[in-house]
Design goal:
Layout lengths: L9 E5 L2 E4 L3 E2 L5 E2 L13 E5 L2 E5 L4 E3 L5 E3 L1 H6 L5 E4 L2 E4 L6 E3 L6 E3 L2 H4 L8 E6 L2 E6 L3 E6 L2 E6 L2 H4 L8 E6 L2 E6 L12
Antiparallel strand pairs: 1-2, 3-4, 5-6, 7-8, 9-10, 11-12, 13-14, 15-16, 17-18
Length: about 200
Amino acid sequence: AICGHGCKYGECMGPNKCKCFPGFTGKTCNQDLNECGLKPRPCEHRCMNTHGSYKCYCLNGYMLMPDGTCASSRTCAMVNCQYGCEEVKGEVQCLCPSGGLQLGPNGRTCIDIDECSTGKAVCSYNRRCVNTFGSYYCKCQLGYELKYISGRYGCVDVNECVTNTHRCNLHAECLNTEGSFKCKCKQGYRGNGFDCA
């Protein structure tokens, strides 16, 4: 089976037919499925959509059970956690619904971990890290765009001279470079390419 547009998070099952991995949707399985919007809802109280998955958490005073339901807990109510809690060996601990969040100094609220600045994020060559609340994603570096070429997605150089996104002077020629461009004044003109006289 050949899928001309590829199946980003799935498998090609027939001519241009993708079978998406759980948590993904779309013709090429490139879109995250928002499980929180499904009926029936996967979580009893609150739901946080994540890339390819989701996390359940409970209102204050409730404890998250393994099946995604929330059980009333007097001890949890006393601790006053932002995202529900769990009891471990009689100790009550507040929870954060994502690995990209950590408990704040008060032990009750969750604060974001900036994976981009801590170096926890791993983005491949040509991609830059963009932090989000509770996670991060990798975006093409400036001067590159995401394209599907020979069976996979990759960051490809944007030719600013062809797309006309350069800022060269009217009397200059544009020269494309990897990830950028240069401007050179035409014969008979002098300057840096952005200003030619």
